[in-house]
Amino acid sequence: MTAAPHTVAPANTVGRVMRQVLYALLPAICLHIIFFGPGLVIQILLGVTAAVAAESLALRLRGQPVQKFLMDGSAAITAVLIALCLPPLAPWWLIVSGTAFAILVAKHLYGGLGSNPFNPAMVGYAVLLVSFPAQLTRWLPPDISGLQTVAFSLPETLHTIFTGSLPTSLQWDAVTSPTPLNALRTGVAMGQTLQEATAQPIFGMLGGRGWDWINVALLAGGVWLLSQRLIRWHTPVAMLAGLTIPAAIMSAVDPGSYPGPMFHLTAGASMLGAFFIATDPVTSATSDRGKLIYGAGIGVITYVIRSWGGYPDGIAFAVLLMNLSAPLIDRFTVPRIYGHSR
Amino acid sequence: MIRAMTGGGLRLETNKERSTAAPLRAASVPAEVILPLDQHAGTAARPLVKVGDAVLLGQPIAEPTSDISAWVHSPVSGSVIAVEPRPVAYHAASSPCIVIRNDFADRRDNANTAVDYASMSPAQLSDHIARGGIVGLGGATFPTASKLSQAVAQPDLHLLLNGAECEPWISCDDMLMRERAADIVFGAHVLMHALGTVSCTIAVEDDVPQAIASLRAAAAQVQPHIRIATLPDVYPAGGERQLILAVTDREVPAGRLPSDIGILCQNVGTAAAVARWIRDGEPLITRIVTITGSGVREPANLETRLGTPIASLIADCGGYTTDDRRLIMGGSMMGLAFSDDRLPIVKGSNCVIVPSPSDLHPRSAEMPCIRCGNCSEVCPAWLLPQQLHWQAQAHDVAALESFGLMDCIECGCCDYVCPSQIPLTQRFREAKVPVQAELLARSEAHLSRQRYEARGERLVRIENEQRARLEQKRREITGRKSPP
């Protein structure tokens, strides 16, 4: 006979949680494809294949039921998140090795689903970022009128991804364009003012063109996750506040060098980080108060890395640093129990 | 104004309308009743009858054996045919039972008479309530008089009657409040007199409008005034500590009783039972039982003689719809599963669910915890079940204790929302055993240290006294010697 409770919430499984997260990413994925071409689709397919292979291998080696854990969808999410961070024309081995590293090392060497202290997707991405920095800067400008673009067809995209070289007659320097965060960074480093650096056509009203809409789509997906009660508001709100407040202060102090909060919120992986990466429950702080500290930490560290660090975007490192701090945060943010003082 | 349960809880599908469509009616009286002697909290009662004895309806057949124990009365007239262990639905082991064959004459025990409670002192009244065999009918079955006497020393007591029937499926209190609100109000006045207080609230969930209307009408006719408070139908709003917080905005400190903060909680059914005993001279020999679920043809609430086999109630409700004999005693969140429908209804039996597969959502395969925190969001004790789960896996008794395992009320909310389908409540029940043992060992160690220190002090004292006596004697001797 079963023990109480005799009933649980219907259709509430880890697999469902993961599927909902994937649905929430769909609008941003669509916009990404519109702006940057079909490369992302190839990257996602490659990543998911690598993730499933790595997950199966790891589960088999660990003597775990392969079918049961493969169907939870967590490996697929890791792959999709890494794919969203990579340039769409990046060579195939980049996403494959990054995803494999994420699943095999960051996830399964630490005990698999639920036991990994670090966000596997961010570990995978960070390893690629420090190992292959050149490949990770090869972004195309978004396919928006007014920007000089070379539209890549599907065959050209496949050719580039699988051979690692562009179609004949094209040079990397000619087709790539710095991301807004990168352009801003280089410009300011060369002594330009913020206004001069952002005078390029890749910058729009909010921030980088194309990127702003993708971030809006990610925000919409995140709000949907909130409405589905799949994530709590504490982490994303705290993270965005951690990014906004220093940005507001610094841009008020020195408007010539520091962009304002709007730029930061709509640039790079801000919304992806806030709603889809920092909210990874396994690797974040657990109590509501803990989540506020955890999220704020990610926001502030991201701002610091973007403004004064060695990388144009800092979400991955910020997340990993706060993953490291999560157990400590948990220790000091245990909520008060009913009937207990403190 | 009552606020929502502060932190935690769940809005569940209540399924109560299934059993409230038909009015309250009496169950068939069976040919044989089985009366467990340990159907209340505390120590088992001692039989006053033996096999072959004739008994009257309402006659005491077992007496309490300690301060926390209760009288048991015969719900029928007839003869005792067995005093022996029988299986029961509230625990796995058998319980000592008195079995009575019904002669269907319903010859009453005339010693049971109505009393004028207003002329009695609180202590006399409390003693008299004990003689009615009355225990908490919300499910905990704590002897009512014991609860009264624990609280009566407190000044400014407030009586809180719990009509918040928060568990899904159960509707016996709803039907009682709808149809017998006057009994509840009368019982409330008796309990107020026994406590020496004039302050009483009846707390009800806001999804039982008919019950609220009946209570308001009944309470309006009498003095002192009884407040009817409504609260949102959030499970487990009817948990004693959760209810107290929602109604009074105060928390019961951990390890203490509600009476320590001046509140005495009783179920509305208990108040009605008190009324029947005081006003009509009828001890606790019946209770209202909800029979519900898709597995029974006509769900209903039945006023049932204690000791009636569950099968008899199922028959009263048109019988089973399936061959599946899975039964739940209590609600779907905290009830106990069993399969034998010959087991008897006892004082604590509020509901029997005969579920069909579609009534309950069974758990799917268990996955590892992903620390999503849904469990801590719904925990009404404000615990972190996800942390307790890790600590229970690691058998970390110290951490389990400091993270409040013993404050877990086993409501099942964490299980309900867990996407990893982990049977958290069951794990916590099991994990409480070593923590309890540790606490006990510590309190025993504390006691023996106290004893050891007391012994040390006593030895020192005795030695000092002996020394003083010797000194005295020596002085007397030398004093006698010196003056020649």
From TrEMBL, chain A:
Its EC number is 7.-.-.-. The chain crosses the membrane at residues 20-48, 69-86, 233-250, 262-280, 292-309. Keywords: Cell inner membrane, Cell membrane, Electron transport, Flavoprotein, FMN, Membrane, Phosphoprotein, Translocase, Transmembrane, Transmembrane helix, Transport. It is a multi-pass membrane protein. It is an enzyme of class 7 (translocase). InterPro entries: NqrB/RnfD (IPR004338), RnfD_bac (IPR011303). The keyword Repeat does not apply. GO terms for cellular component: plasma membrane. GO terms for biological process: electron transport chain; transmembrane transport. Its cofactor is FMN. The modification FMN phosphoryl threonine is found at T179. It is found in: Cell inner membrane. Belongs to the NqrB/RnfD family. PANTHER family: ELECTRON TRANSPORT COMPLEX PROTEIN RNFD (PTHR30578), ION-TRANSLOCATING OXIDOREDUCTASE COMPLEX SUBUNIT D (PTHR30578:SF0). The complex is composed of six subunits: RnfA, RnfB, RnfC, RnfD, RnfE and RnfG. Part of a membrane-bound complex that couples electron transfer with translocation of ions across the membrane. NCBIfam families: PRK00816.1 (NF002011), rnfD (TIGR01946). This is Ion-translocating oxidoreductase complex subunit D. It comes from Povalibacter uvarum. The lineage of its organism: Bacteria, Pseudomonadati, Pseudomonadota, Gammaproteobacteria, Steroidobacterales. The gene is rnfD.
From TrEMBL, chain B:
Its EC number is 7.-.-.-. It is found in: Cell inner membrane. GO terms for cellular component: plasma membrane. It is a peripheral membrane protein. [4Fe-4S] cluster 2 binds at C379, C408, C411, C414. Its cofactor is [4Fe-4S] cluster. Part of a membrane-bound complex that couples electron transfer with translocation of ions across the membrane. This is Ion-translocating oxidoreductase complex subunit C. It comes from Povalibacter uvarum.
